[in-house]
């Protein structure tokens, strides 16, 4: 079994030396399928008043300027909608996610597009997908008391309807050394072997 369409989201400010970039790409390639890579490190646009105004204007009533203001968000949403599998590289910076990744979340979490509210509360519209989060850190333990990145990202994915989420951990590299990266590589091998089976 392969993933037909894989969205690989990279967010590390580092390039060649980034553990999340290397491991998330390895995971995506091992899964098989067509990979679309979105590097958000340069930064998606931040949400501002004009963006909010455009987003909450019914599509049929939007001006050309409002459509243009949402065009970047529309492209990011379309990538998510087209993906069967999402692989996200998540470095932990100062106990949280990179600002650029949070900006990406703000661009793709759109009411009546990727989620909606009903009588029983919010409902994600990106169902039938799975996601892998590849998290790396220097000292912060993934899912530890001061990890405000991994639970946040997993919650957002669930909010959008993506509830099949697996976390690959290469955390606490300054504490555990290369062993934590090697453990993540073994986890990737096991995960992809299970998918292939």
Automatic annotation (TrEMBL):
Which intervals of the chain form a coiled coil? 167-194
Ranges where the Flavodoxin-like fold domain occurs: 5-190
For the ligand (FMN), the binding residues are 12
Sorted keywords for this record are: Coiled coil, Flavoprotein, FMN, NAD, Oxidoreductase
Q: Which GO terms describe its molecular function?
A: electron transfer activity; FMN binding; oxidoreductase activity, acting on NAD(P)H as acceptor; oxidoreductase activity, acting on NAD(P)H, quinone or similar compound as acceptor
**Cofactor note text:** Binds 1 FMN per subunit.
Superkingdom to which the source organism belongs: Bacteria
Q: Which cofactor does it need?
A: FMN
Task: Sum up the protein's function in the record's words.
Answer: Quinone reductase that provides resistance to thiol-specific stress caused by electrophilic quinones. Also exhibits azoreductase activity. Catalyzes the reductive cleavage of the azo bond in aromatic azo compounds to the corresponding amines.
Subunit structure, briefly? Homodimer.
Indicate the family of this protein: Belongs to the azoreductase type 1 family.
Name the PANTHER family for this protein. Answer: FMN-DEPENDENT NADH-AZOREDUCTASE 1, FMN-DEPENDENT NADH:QUINONE OXIDOREDUCTASE
Q: What is this protein called?
A: FMN dependent NADH:quinone oxidoreductase
